[in-house]
Amino acid sequence: MKRRQFLVNSTAVLAGPSSLATSNLEVQGTVAATADPRVAVLLVDTERIIGSIDERIYGHFLEHINHSVVDGLYAEQIRGCGFEGKDFETYWEPFSERGGVENADVDFRNGKKSVRLRCEGGRAGIRQGRVYVAAGQEYDGSLWVKKEAGSPRLILRVIGSNGAPIASVPLASAGSGWEEIPYSFSSAVRDTQASVELAAEGTGRLLIDYFSMMRADARRDGMLRPDLLQALRDLAPPFIRWPGGSFASTYKWKDGIGPHVSRRYTPNTFWGGYSDYYGFGTDEFMGLCRKLGSEPLIVLPAPGVNPEQVQYAMDWVRYLNDPSATEWGKVRASNGHPEPYGVRYFQIDNEPMNNGFTPDAYAEIVNLYGGRLRQIAPGARIVACGQKRSNDMNWSQRIIDLAGKNFDILGVHNYEYEPRGFETGLRRIGHSLSTLRDYIRASAHPRIEIGVLEWNLSRTYDWRAGLHAAGSLILYEQLSPAVSMSCPALLMRNTTDDPTWTSFIYHDHVSWFPGSAYPVEKLFRAHYAERHLASTSGTFRDIPNRKQFFDEIATMKPEDWRPGSVDAIAAKSADGRRIVIKAVNYEGQRNLLYVRLQGNGVPVQAAATLHTMSAGLMDTASLERPDAITAVSRKLTYAREFTVELEPYTVAVVEIPAV
Fold first, then answer.
1. What is the pLDDT of residue 34?
2. Bridge partners of 582?
3. Closest listed residue to residue 76, CA positions, set 165, 140, 156, 3
4. What distance lies between CA 295 and its chain's CA centroid?
5. Which of 12, 50, 185, 474 has the maximal Cβ count within 10 Å?
6. Distance, CA of 388 to CA of 386 (rounded, Å)
7. What residues are paired with 139 via a beta bridge?
8. Spatial CB neighbours of 311, under 8 Å, sequence gap ≥ 6
9. Which residues pair with 138 in a beta bridge?
10. Average pLDDT over the chain, rounded to whole?
11. Largest Cα–Cα separation, the chain
12. How far is CA 386 from CA 349, 393, 585, 608, 629, in A?
C-alpha cells in the first residue's frame, strides 16, 4: 500500500509527522484531494457535561445467518454431522469396494436418517473434504455406531490434501445397540484442505450417526473457534443480542438444549436453508457471554397471541432465570447449569412487520408478552420493536402510545443501503432518531430509551463502511442517553455465502479478516469515555488567525460552512482523568480539526496519544491481507490548543490522560 502522512500541528507544541498505510484515495463528488483544507472547530469545556454516554452504544448482534455460527463461531468441524435432510448428498462422498453405502431411513434420537455401511469382504465408507488441521493441535470427538450384522472394523482416517496420512484411529464397538465411540488424534502438520474418512472393512453391516470433531482445547472451552472468539473479545461488547434477527422469529429454543446428539436438525430456512443441528444453543450462548463479560439480550419468538405461543416464550425466560428447584430450573440444572443465568434483557421478537403485523397488532403482542415478562422477570428490561425504516415514524409512535407501559427500550433499525450514502445517510438517520427522541419525551412514557439494534452500511465492507461506522458511533454518543444501546449487523459471516449482507467479521474455515467497520468500532470502544463534553459537525473556510474562532466567537462570522465534511465529539472519563476526542473526515481532501480545551478539568500535564486510520474509499482487507486497514498510534506533545490535520477519509482518536 502507498504511504500517506498524518500530521498534527499545534499553536503551542503539539507537532510531529507519522506515516499511515493507505491507497487509492478516491475523490468523492467535487471535493479534490488538493483543495485547501477547511476547519472544524471544537471548543471543549471540561466543566460542562452535556450528558452521559451509555457504554451499551458498543453492543453487538449475533444472528444465525450466512454461517456466522454453524461453520463459523461454533467450533464443530464436521458439516452435516447427523446426515439429515440433504446433508448426505451435500457434504459427504460415499465410496466402496465390495460393499455399499446408503443414507438409510432410521430413527435415531431426534433424527430420521443414518448412514449404513455394508461390507462384503471389502470396504465401504464416507469422506468429507475441506477440513482444517493445525500442526501440534489435538482433536477429539465421537461417533455413534450400531452394529447390524457381522463384525466389520471401523476406522477414522484423516488424510492430507497431498494424499499423505495424518491420523488413523480404530473405532471399536463392543455392543449391538447404539453406542457412542470417543476418539482423539494429534496432527503433526498444517493442512487447510484435509479430508476425514469413516470406513468399515471386512464383512458385515453397521449404522453410523452424529459424527463430531473439534479442536480439543475448543471443546473444553465452550466449543467456540478460538480465533473468532478472540475477534469478539477484542470488540469488548457490553451486550450481545441473540439469536436474531429474522432467525429469532422461528427459533425453537427447546430443540437447542441438552445433549448435542439429541438436539433437533433444523435447516436455517430464513438464510439459505443450510444445515443446523442447533449445536450452539442457549447454554452455549450464555457461555459465550460469560467469557466476554457481556450482558445477553435474548430475542423471544412472539408469533401470535395463542396461549401456547406465549407460554413457549415464557418457558425460555424461566429456563434462563428460575431457581434450580423449579420446573425449568431443574431442566437447566440437568444440562449442567444449576445456577440461574439472571438475564436482564428480553426483546419481543424482531421486525414484526416482516411477519404481517400492523403496529396495532404488534402493540397487542407487546402488551401481552410484556405484561407476562413484568410478572415472571420483574427486574428485566423489555425491548419492543420500533420502526424498521427511518421514515416509518408512525410505527414507533403507535407502539409507544398503545404499549408504552409494557416495555422499557424501543429497538429501531437504521441501515444505510447505498454505499455512496456513507455520510449523507447519517443525516437522515440522525434526524429520525432526534424526532423519535422528542416524541418519546412528549409522550405518556418519557422514560422509554431508544436502542439502535441493527445498523451498518449494509451493501459494502470497504472503507466507506468504516467511515459510516465512525459517524454512526459519534452520532449515537451525541444522542446518548436517549439512545442507550446499539449493535451493528452483521457481526460475522462466511466468505462463501450470499454477499448481500455485509459484516464486521469475514471468515472461512481457517482464518478471518475484518470488514472496514470492525477496526473503527474496536478503536472507538477501546477509547470509550462516559461524559459527553462537546461535539461539532461540518467545516468552515480557514482563516489566517485561527484563534479568532475562539477568541472572537461572540462577534465573528464564520464563512462557507459545509456539512458532511467532518464530525467530531469530545468526552471525558467518569473520574475526569481522561479526555477523548473522536473525529472522522468524510472527504477526499485534507481537513483540519481545531481544538481548544478550557475549564478547571483540563490537565496541567498529560501524555497525549493520537490514533489514526486512513484508506481509499474502495480499500478492503482480505484473508490474504487482514491488516490492510489498521490503526497507527503515536505519542503527542500535550497542549491546551491544537490543530489535527485529518488526511482524506480518515478516522482519528486523540486521548489525553492526566499525568
1. 56
2. 569, 653
3. 140
4. 14
5. 474
6. 7
7. 185, 215
8. none
9. 186
10. 93
11. 98
12. 11, 9, 31, 41, 34
**Rounded percentage of the chain residues whose pLDDT exceeds 70:** 95
Model pLDDT, residue 23: 31
Separation CA 579–CA 640 (nearest Å): 11
C-alpha cell at 577: 482523568
Position 618 scores a pLDDT of 96
Amino acid occupying residue 299: V
Average pLDDT on 9-18 reads 32
Cα 382 → chain centroid: 21
Going from the C-alpha of 445 to that of each of 249, 435, 439, 484, the distances in angstroms are 27, 15, 10, 16
Question: Could you tell me which of 76, 70, 108, 71 has the C-alpha nearest to residue 264?
Answer: 108
* Beta pairing, strands 409-416 & 449-457: parallel
Closest CA to 489 of 247, 222, 227: 247
Question: φ, ψ for residue 464 (rounded to 5)?
Answer: -60, -35
pTM exceeds 0.85: yes
Q: Three-class SS string for 399-461?
A: HHHHHHHHCCEEEEEEEECCHHHCCHHHHHHHHHHHHHHHHHHHCCCCCCEEEEEEEEECCCC
**Cα–Cα distance, 287 to 513 (Å, whole number):** 24
Cα 342 → chain centroid: 22
What totals of helices (H) and strands (E) does the chain contain, helices first? 13, 30
Listed in sequence order, the residues at least 6 apart from 495 whose beta carbon sits closer than 8 Å to its beta carbon are 506, 507, 508, 623
Amino acid (1-letter code) at residue 66: N
Predicted confidence band of residue 84 (pLDDT cuts 50, 70, 90): very high
- Give the integer Cα–Cα distance in Å for 591 and 28: 14
Separation in Å, CA 310 to CA 15, 266, 318, 353: 62, 21, 12, 19
